[in-house]
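Hello again, I could really use a second opinion on something today. I've been staring at a protein lately and its backbone has me curious. You're getting the sequence in one-letter code plus the fold written as tokens. I'd be grateful if you could look everything over and explain what you see. No rush at all, and the record is pasted right below:
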Amino acid sequence: MSANRSLNGATSAWPTFPPTAAIAGTAKKSGSSGSIGWSKTRINTCEIGWPARYTGIEALAAAKFGIQIELTPWQEQNLAMMRRLFDYARMCGIRCWHEVTWHMPWLANEPGSMPYYDSVQTAKFWRKYQESTGKIVPTVPYKWCGLTFQWLDPRMPEVQEFITACVASQMEVLGSDHYYYIGIGGEGHFGSGSPEELDELTEALLFKTIDAVKAADPQAIILTGQPFAYAPTYQAQKRAVKKSEAIVVTNFLAVPQRIPDFQLNDYYWGLRWTNGMVVHCGKHTNPWGDMKVAVENAKALCQDPRAYNWWGFTVGGSPAIGPTSNRTC
């Protein structure tokens, strides 16, 4: 597959069996004399993790442990602005979803925790927590692209309680559409440990975090990323995703000389999944073709009978999957 052509060269209109309609359960036959038309429900969603950062969620969550940490004036202003922004998005029919993946941020000068970034408030919370309980919360080193992050281990009850408190606080101040993205290790690898230990950790990253999220929001709908074939924990990632019944969110439909992830992973084993276009990654714009190519590839994918659970088309950027990736499902 090259960056200047579609999967099968198709330029025809959308086929008469769009998987988005079938999955949404709203497909209806219409039309007459040999033609079939379809009506469908289209859901627009947006990953709000990046805009929602720096809103002091960790400080608000600390209060649920009896630990008082004041928001800065800038955080208060940003929090109010984000609430207005997300309320407006919901008024326009856009469903907002947030990342709940608990490791340190990408940049060394932002050593809070992901998805919330304030390093001073995070350190203050854990310090006061240790002082009041006598418990030290260990972290797990995670290496990616020459960087090392400290991942909060959701197998620890204290971390699960903190994640639950953060999700509850976020719902209170930013609202919720009940969609949460949880990562499973991605491209990197975790420090040392036997393959069995790393596999166990990989599954825990997903399932223990799901438990913590659902403790705050029983209506939670879980999204996750595709297993990375070149990651040391690839097999464990596959097992975890298959068992999770999560929606798999990917952007890499039009990457030249690369087998699509949905083919590497057996069309995600009947789970719902999205795919689409990365418009910015690694400091490059349109690295794998333009929007027209992505749309033509999506049309071709619609005609693949094995893609019956393909749930939507994605437009996103990087770092990671995308700071403000827009999903149309």
